[in-house]
# Entry
Amino acid sequence: MQGRAWGVAAVIGSAIGFGALPIFARQAYSDGADVTAVLFLRFLIAGLLMALLMVAGRRPWPRPFAIGALVLIGGGIYVLQSFSFFKALQYASAGLVGLLLYLYPFLVTVLGALLFREPLGVKRFTAVCLALAGTALTLWGGMSGSTVGIAFGVIAALLYSAYILMGSRILKNEEAFGAAAVVMLSAAAVFGVMVAIGEPAFPQSAAGWRSIAAIAVFSTVIAIVGFFIGMRILGAADASTLSTLEPVVTIALAAIFLGERLQPSQLIGAAVVLGAVVWLTRIRS
# Structure
């Protein structure tokens, strides 16, 4: 039970970090940064910090075969997922794109059961469905989009599901810290090429750079490492379902720091997600 509780705590910490990402990103964008620059700086700073911590702590790096797979995940799947997500935002509302992305807990649970024979069960499947319904209520409002936007949104969810499922297999034999470091450095390398051939816009003041630092530390290092630790302990399905706390954190922080008003449907959705999470933590307890 102690190991499972630690896994739950790690994923909740990860969800808080990822949930804060839109708040920090909005501040960076308002300071003049663009998407490519933010993504490059995010993974560059996070990757270098992780490499420093790996060396200082004398932690083992993944084995060569695992490094190759992690480079594919970080520099390939994760980058394509980010591209698909931001492309979807050009053709569909943020609420619809967010809802499509959060199909991934359902996809991870079902695909994990079909492909890897991971345990499912009625209780776990019900918790996933409740979390998905709660997420829909949380993100509801002003949902609209073209077929192109919906297609890119679904592709983003499928790619993120593949990222999680592949990562979960690697983490059965590798340490979460080293795996996360390789993913971040790989993503930084690809986004670095995009910056080199493009015309990125970087933050224009100290406030923007503080937001970038917060993204790198809280919404990347802590968030990704926490998720990997949780996924190694809990499995891909449970870790993904617990991650539906992310939009709940986002709307709460937006209300507190950006003055955005919460709608009744969002409060109901948040309550449903929290209920599903509490229920999930009790399974196997």
